[in-house]
Amino acid sequence: MMDCTDRHCRSFHRVLTRRTLLYTEMVTTGALLHGDWRRFLAHEPTERPLALQLGGDDPAALAACAELAESLGFCEVNLNVGCPSDRVQAGRFGACLMREPRVVAEAVAAMRARVRIPVTVKHRLGVDEQEGFAPLVTFVDTVAAAGCEVFAVHARKAWLAGLSPKENREVPPLDYDLVYRLKAERPRLTIVLNGGVPSLAAAREHLRHVDGVMIGRAAYHEPWLLARADSTIFGEPSDPVADRVAAVEAFVPYVERQLATGQPLARIARHLVGLFHGEPRARRWRQILTEGARLRGAGVEVIADALAAVRAREGLAAHVGCRLAPARTSRMPKYVIEREIAGAGSLSPEELQEVSLRSLASLRELGPKIQWLHSFVTDDKIYCVYLAPDEDTVRRHAEMTGIPASRVSAVRRLLDPTNVA
Ligand SMILES: Cc1cc2nc3c(=O)[nH]c(=O)nc-3n(C[C@H](O)[C@H](O)[C@H](O)COP(=O)(O)O)c2cc1C
């Protein structure tokens, strides 16, 4: 979903579900072939299984992009034949291709000739005056003849003129029966139903008629629903995280890594705002996260604050071992400890782990008033970044761990490419 399922969102969703297939936002062939494809296709291996959705109509360009996707570890290439936006129509792709099944078939054939991963299509029931089963099955048969075996059907048609993309997701009525009939009459094809599915319970109902269910808005706005997908839908004995707090904790190391590369917190935190949807104090969570993440230099302490607010009502005491302990940390100063350690860069993973465990043990003893954010290991120094109420606490921590601190400096300002202007 454009402007939603970026890499941060997908990394978060992967904390909630291991088995669900995740999709990228639609990326046009033009963006990939004439723009910075590294940026558009960047993802963490942990996001997989991950499908790349392409927008375009030129078989050669689509084939080149599909090849790129396969080489980068995507497990599927999906062609968008559902987007009705003016911009997409101007490029003659998206939903308007419902009128041109042969063009889609040619595109699919070209992509299939170049890659081994599945080439799939996401489409509508029809567009404009196309009504009923006939245009739908003609489209699917034509594209299936070119080798497409998986069709994700948004179970409503699109009006190409007169409705905005948003209206085209709400105004044309959903017709699940047409999708069920498609599966019944083309049993060899894999038919995935999309559109208006609000929950896993509803998905299970649809799965009595079709092979798969694709959930868009509900999964984005209420991501916790994904957290039971592995057990409920895929029959796994357990799910990756026990509760929402555990989900946030599991995601924090990713957030820290991204912040260290200069990503602003707001870009990541926006995908978490719906996590506590329907829970007490969900509004506080949203508010603290949204407002806090906007501040310059905002760090994981904003997430800790928001978490503390939702947990306050439960009366939970400090969560032992949780790096997001419920403390008011957003105004806590940040410190960099410089540690001179000859040969630091050549320490083995086991040696680094041993040092880290020692540090964590002392942090537990000191309680939530000091938090370790991350460390940068160079050849002969380790720079560790902490949130702490004062320098003394940082020095005390250094003494307790027995890892010498050559220098402790308070961070006064954070500069990154996003806040220089
Ligand atoms: C903000 C937004 C962005 C979307 N972007 C895409 C997109 O890039 N590709 C696509 O195939 N569908 C896109 N969609 C449509 C959804 O994938 C889905 O087909 C539609 O919302 C209906 O499913 P749902 O009711 O489960 O959300 C988008 C929807 C929204 C709300």
Q: What this model shows, in words?
A:
This protein has helices spanning 7-16, 29-34, 37-41, 59-71, 86-90, 101-114, 133-145, 176-185, 200-206, 217-221, 229-232, 244-260, 265-269, 282-294, 301-312, 349-366, 391-401; strands at 22-28, 50-55, 76-81, 119-124, 150-154, 190-194, 212-214, 334-340, 371-377, 381-387, 407-410. The chain is an alpha/beta fold and 421 residues long. It has a 7-stranded parallel beta sheet. A 4-stranded antiparallel beta sheet has the order 9-10-8-11, sandwiched between helices. The chain binds flavin mononucleotide. Flavin mononucleotide (FMN) binds at residues 1-4, 25-26, 53, 80, 82-83, 122, 154, 169, 194-197, 215-218.
**Rough outline:** elongated
Are there runs of 5+ residues with pLDDT below 50, and where?
Answer: 315-330
CATH top level class name of the largest domain: Alpha Beta
What is the total tally of β strands?
A: 11
How much of the sequence is in beta strands? 5-15%
Number of helices: 17
Main-sheet strand order equals: 1-2-3-4-5-6-7
What is the string of helix and strand elements? HEHHEHEHHEHEHEHEHHHHHHEHEEHE
The helix/strand class is alpha/beta
Share of helix among residues? Answer: 25-40%
Rg of Cα set = 25 Å
The termini sit apart by 30 Å
Bound molecules: flavin mononucleotide
Give the CATH topology of the largest domain.
TIM Barrel
What is the CATH architecture term of the largest domain?
Alpha-Beta Barrel
What would you give as the CATH superfamily of the largest domain?
Aldolase class I
